TrEMBL record:
Cross-referenced PROSITE patterns: ARF
Positions that bind GTP: 60-67, 110, 164-167
Entry-linked InterPro entries: Arf-like_GTPase, P-loop_NTPase, Small_GTPase_ARF/SAR
Name this polypeptide is given: ADP-ribosylation factor-like protein 10
Key words, A-Z: GTP-binding, Magnesium, Metal-binding, Nucleotide-binding
Organism whose genome encodes this protein: Etheostoma spectabile
Length: 223
């Protein structure tokens, strides 16, 4: 009887130990099932937050071609979309992922009623892109005045001036734009680039934008 009692106690202890082990294993397993997705989500979220973002403010008079320029930076956009590109009435936003960072482009319409708000968006901007219609010589004085108003508001902000529509008749050359916009003194106080660009008539928009590959490289240097 004593032997049977000891054997029964031993079996009970073994069963209790086995039950505890199973409980711990199951508890660990279910915890992993519950928390693993959240941990994975947190890891992805942290990775996204660690990716640096740089804001590029795109300004210019109405009709300068700001929206078309942004389309030209978007991979895979068909050329036919240029025909549906309407003047921006308010704001236009686009993000472009590049190896170094994420470029957030904010375009603000160039109508007279919107220009007074331009300077409000300079403070958080890393680079200013100012688009000029090279073919509209009559508006170059106004384009110059608006540009220099922005330059006075942010004395050290890097600037890329994009002379657009170079394929149009009587378009001002880069040297003519440099003089008409009085950019000589500006280069002494900040980083400034003046580029010429035009949109091709066929093929993917990104490949038919002359000067935009260089433009993107310069942006990455400035941000």
């Amino acid at each position: 009887m004593v032997l049977l009692r000891h054997l029964s106690l031993a079996l009970s202890a073994a069963a209790a130990a086995l039950g505890s082990a199973l409980f711990i294993a199951l508890n660990f397993f279910y915890k992993r099932r519950v928390w693993s997705p959240q941990a994975e989500y947190c890891a992805i979220k942290e990775e996204e937050e660690e990716r640096e973002k740089r804001q590029v403010l795109v300004l210019g008079l109405d009709g300068a071609g700001k929206s078309s320029m942004l389309q030209g930076l978007t991979p895979g956009e068909p050329a036919a979309r240029r025909g549906r590109c309407r003047p921006t009435r308010g704001f236009n936003f686009m993000s472009l992922n590049v190896p170094a960072c994420q470029l957030d482009f904010l375009e603000i319409g160039g109508g007279e009623d919107l220009r007074r708000y331009w300077s409000d968006y300079l403070r958080k901007t890393h680079v200013l892109v100012y688009v000029v219609d090279s073919s509209d010589r009559s508006r170059l004085p106004l384009a110059k005045a608006e540009l220099h108003r922005l330059l006075r508001a942010e004395p050290q902000l890097p600037v890329v001036v994009l002379g657009n529509k170079q394929d149009k008749p009587d378009a001002a050359s880069v040297s003519e734009l440099h003089e008409a916009l009085s950019l000589g003194p500006v280069t002494q106080t900040r980083k400034l680039f003046l580029l010429a660009a035009q949109l091709g008539s066929d093929g993917p928009l990104r490949n038919s934008c002359r000067g935009l590959d260089t433009f993107q490289d310069i942006l990455l240097q400035l941000v």
